[in-house]
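Onboarding guide, step 5: your first structure request.
Type a short instruction followed by the sequence, for example:

Predict the 3D structure of this protein.
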Amino acid sequence: MSHATDRTHDRDLRSWVESANREGSDFPIQNLPFGSFRRRDSGQTHVGVAIGDQVLDLSACENAGLLEGLAAAEACTAHSLNAWMACSAEDRRALRRRLVELLEEGTAPGRIQAVGKCLVPTEELELLLPANVGDYTDFYASVFHATNIGKMFRPDNPLLPNYKHIPIGYHGRASSIVVSETPVRRPQGQTKADDADSPTFGPSKLLDYELEVGAFIGPGNQLGHPIPIEEAEDHLVGLCLVNDWSARDLQKWEYQPLGPFLAKSFTTTISPWVVTAEALTPFRVPAFERPEGDPQPLPYLSSPANEAHGGVDLTLEVWLQSERMRQEGHEPIRLSRGNFAKLYWTVAQMITHHTSNGCDLRPGHLLASGTVSGPTKGERGCLMELTTKGAEPLELPTGETRKFLADGDEVILRGYCEREGFVRIGFGECRGRIEAAG
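The system replies with structure tokens like these:
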């Protein structure tokens, strides 16, 4: 995959959609993230791209002849992004170039009129899951998160011997992935107190969020045919925000010997917009520099391109608002700010390792990074880390404290990329509010 920028990344590029030009907009013309939505006026489900506070309906564009000659045009008439994800990287790039031509300032008035008929205010739409997620894998790619968690249980040996040699992951539950703003029901399950003789069943008392990034898979591979590291990014369509909600008390009791199960499978929330690999090009950075003495990746997980461009300079934030904060008029407060570039393993390495045994990945499959944390306390991506397993509670503006999440709490994830010489692009939000157990 090419990491060269082109005119679609030009900082001087502006759109005739005025809201896209506002300072701080998540969705300037240099971004154009893809998503799926339902029109409230007709109930029809279409795919589109976000531009400012509007969504360009790609099905309407195709029906109007605005996408003529593009190999990806037919995929734009589908009800989810899976068909678009199945297109080649070059066909997706060609579609991106056409969309910029349709939306850039200076477009002919007649064409602006035609494109304008395909725009719908975002507030008039119901945003949906961007794709039918056929399979979901969650990794554990932050060495800072793995170390912080490991210290709580193995102070003298926080990292297990395999961690720096192999991207660790587990197969998650695709059926319980939901789009941002879907309520999150507190799960019930078995837990066992340290001083108890036997477990009990009931609502989780140690409910947590996890700040993660999701990578959507493009064309994918055939069963039995691994994806080499040199080709891995040809299968990366784009990124989204992920909140992999976790019931820590359920997890503690159930995870041995086979790992996470009901503590993770009750809900995973993702943001509605897929920020494309092409839009992220200006923000690619070298892969995480391993400390001296750490093992280098095995040859199948190593390439010069991955070392030079494997990271993404993506700032990630977690915000929290309690029920009482809403009632008293307090805005959400930021709990942490981290960066996706500090992951020990890159997305390309995750893709290559996932397929190294011949496992097939298909369009719309989702790989998540695992909790993104950094070396400082302000970069920790979950409450388990921030409160040191509840020993150091957070204080909210209302005087409330939080060791773990309470009913009514809303967690908001935000992400954005910025670099001198380029326009800032954002990911929108990934929101979820906790409801009481049923």
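Each response can be followed by summary notes, for example: The radius of gyration is 22 Å.
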